[in-house]
Every structure is written in structure tokens, then in C-alpha cells.
Amino acid sequence: MAIERDKQGNIKWSLGDRLFNILMLLLLGWSDFLGKSQKGVGENG
After folding, report:
1. What pTM did the predictor assign?
2. CA-based, 20 to 30 A from 17: which of 4, 11, 33, 41?
3. pLDDT of 40
4. What is the DSSP letter of 28?
């Protein structure tokens, strides 16, 4: 992933990486939500 730093030294993500990170966070959050709503069903957390 391309990570750049702006003049203040903050990490500036490219648009593609930003969208990818948001999608991954949504997927992880959604799967975590489903896992909590279905306690003990299927796999053990």
C-alpha cells in the first residue's frame, strides 16, 4: 500500500487504500456483529 506523509507529517492514504480500509472495517464489524448476535451457533469465538 502506498502511504504518504503530508507537510504536517500526518499519514495520507491514497483514495483506493482509504476505501479498502473502510470496507475491511465494515466487513470485520459486520462479522463481529453477526457473531455476537448468534452466540454459540456454528463456531466458538
Report:
1. 0.46
2. 33
3. 59
4. H
